[in-house]
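Lab notebook, bench 4. The sequencing result for the construct came back, and we need a structural model before the next group meeting so we can plan mutations. Quick request posted to the team channel:

Model the 3D structure of this chain.
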Amino acid sequence: MTEPTPSEPTSSAPSTSEPTPSAHTRPPFATTPRGPIEPTGEPANVPPARWDAIVADLAARGVTGTPELVSAHAVTWRNGALGCPQPGMSYTQALVDGMRVVVSVDGTAYDYHFGTSDTPRLCER
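Done. Here's the predicted structure in token form:
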């Protein structure tokens, strides 16, 4: 393959047929595929009260076996839904400091979300 000479156009040259964006043009509306909400946060230790609440919730659901910690992160949720909105519900529209704790029991993962209290919310998708 030979190098192009300066008079030959290259494929990396910008196209002049595309309009340049301005303050009055907006990109087309696009949606993202539905998937898990992955808040970012710092790894954290699970306080004993929250761990006990997770164990109690799993027992109330009839889950037997010993839960193993997969991950725990301190997060700031976008609203009172704690990253797990339910259809037909309305939520406080304010940032909520909380925690996301993922545990595994016999190969099944359980995704628990906390707000400011020690009451867990199992996020089922």
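The chain has a mean pLDDT of 80.
Will bring this to the meeting.
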